[in-house]
Amino acid sequence: MTDSFFPSTQKKFYGKQPCLILLIPVLLMFFLASCQAQNPTSASTQSIPQAASSTPVNTSSTPTAVSPEANTLVIWLPPQFDPETNTPAAVLIQSRLNSFQKKYPQWTVVVRLKAVDGRGGLLDSLANTSMAAPEALPALVALQSQDLESAALKGLLLPLDEKIESSAGNDRLPYAAQMGMVQGKNFGIPLAGDALVLVYHPLQSPYPPSSWQELSSQRKPVIFPAADPDSIVVTTIYQAAGGNLLNQNNPPVLEAAPLQKSFAILNNGTQSGAFPIWISQYSTFTDAWNAYAHQTSAYAIVWSSQYLHDQPVGSEMTTLPAFNSKQITLARGWVWCIPAMNKQPQDAVTYLLEYFSDPDFINDLDQAAGFLPVNTSGLDAITDAQLNQTITKITSSAQLLPTSSTINTISPILENSTIQIIKKQAYYQQAVDQALNLFKK
User: Fold this and answer.
1) How far apart are CA 127 and CA 62, in angstroms?
2) What is the CA radius of gyration of the chain?
3) Which residue, 18, 397, 413, 420, is the most exposed by fewest CB within 10 angstroms?
């Protein structure tokens, strides 16, 4: 422990040395105090230090949430779902919290915000708190779908098969039905969806390209984060070209033929001007969205939530292009989970999960927050006919983003190759050979 946790109690005395006769009472007092400290009945129990207060978004990897008080149910949420912000989604969440407490007045629900990822993020906090301070775990936590497998395999989550009735299971859209599943067990209830889409200016391009070959051949710039550490766009092209990321035994794999087709698309776009060299400076989808918003391109490949949250005038959203008629977009989402070692009453935890998994609430929340629906009823609730048609196509072609472990194995290779091709530092066939050699090492 550092000194900041436990301020020093050692005192120094300065001045003239007292005579021995005066020291005897002092020594006697210290002796008695020492004896009392060794008495087991008076010694305080050692515990893990807890933070006196919590900031809105915890950025430390050390568990800082105080242990839940009696009759208190805690929920961990990312900042996107902060009920105290002045947004339509926040109003819905706060209203749901109030409604729950009216129905179950014996419980008080407390929301604590955690960063999306990184140190002190939701997954990091779940792992550290489960190990060091399980009494501080929440009743519910909203996890990213790509983090759920890691959390489940580490024993951090409680299987939900026997916890709640799967009344909404038949209502789930196919891509969302897989969000909470790990090795055939259900560890989460889908809360919100997101998928890669193509956003464009209809005045510039009234008929957006329907295939990757067509998109890469036209001369209008297409922005996407070429330096994305996760290489999600290139992974999407690779899968649309027929590539697998896992073999039958489940270790990651890179297949030569689909990889060659994918890199050929990148090379074609580099030569035509569709993928200009300056997109190599963008490493996040926020970069790509901001560049598109400043009218620097005709197209952008971004997350659907980025478009749906604002729905800017003069832009439209459509599905990603197809590859030889095969259309795939990678999707992700948020999932309600129960920490395996939480100490809160399980009947109350179940009530809380069921209440916040209600399809009507989730459908309204997804629309208000700018996320894709996870339920068929949520899709039916979209009244804008054109938007409904577009989102129907997107969700029908959506496949879940690979797990973090798979991405971390393959993405560094794809990122390096993408940058080399777009900067014209390597011919695409050379990039294919290099990528396959790196993958084999």
Assistant:
1) 10
2) 27
3) 18
Residues 107 and 178 in one domain: yes
> Do residues 228 and 355 both lie within one domain?
no
Q: What is the Cα–Cα distance from 412 to 419, expressed in whole angstroms?
A: 11
For residue 186, the 8-state DSSP code is E
Q: CB–CB of 142/191 below 8 Å?
A: yes
227 and 279 together in one domain: yes
Specify whether 292 is located in the same domain as 221. Answer: yes
Domain identity same for 81 and 178:
yes
Domain check: are 287 and 431 in the same one? yes
Q: Has residue 348 been placed in a domain? A: yes
Using one digit for the tens of pLDDT, what is the confidence trace for 238-249?
Answer: 999 999 988 766
DSSP secondary-structure letter at 403?
Answer: P
Mean pLDDT within 375-399: 95
Q: Is the dihedral of CA 268, 274, 279, 285 positive or negative?
A: negative
Q: What is the DSSP string of 99-145?
A: HHHHH-TT-EEEEEEBBSSSTTBHHHHHHHHHHH-GGG--SEEEEEH
Please check whether residue 318 lies inside any domain of the structure: no
Closest CA to 76 of 98, 95, 54: 54
The parent domain of residue 277 ranges over: 206-297+403-440
Q: How many domains does the chain have?
A: 2
Six token digits for residue 299: 């197209």
Same structural domain, 246 and 108? no
CA distance 53 to 281: 39
In a domain, 425, yes or no: yes
Burial 209-227 (b: 16+ CB within 10 A, else e): bbbbbebbebebbbbbbbb
Q: Which of 16-20, 144-148, 295-299, 388-392 has the highest mean pLDDT?
A: 388-392
Distances (CA, A) of 226 to 52, 69, 198: 43, 47, 15
Q: Which residues, 6 or more positions from 199, have their beta carbon under 8 angstroms from its beta carbon? A: 292, 299, 300, 301, 302, 306, 307, 315, 316, 317, 318
CATH number of domain containing 134: 3.40.190.10
Q: Which residues contact 97 (CB under 8 A, 6 or more apart)?
A: 83, 109, 111
Nearest to 361 by CA among 101, 76, 95, 81: 95
Instruction: Tell me, yes or no, whether 264 lies in a domain.
Output: yes
- 145-191, pLDDT tens digit by residue? 989 999 999 999 999 876 565 555 678 999 999 999 998 899 999 99
| Rounded (5°) CA angle 391-392-397 | 95
Whole-number Å distance between alpha carbons of 238 and 45 = 57
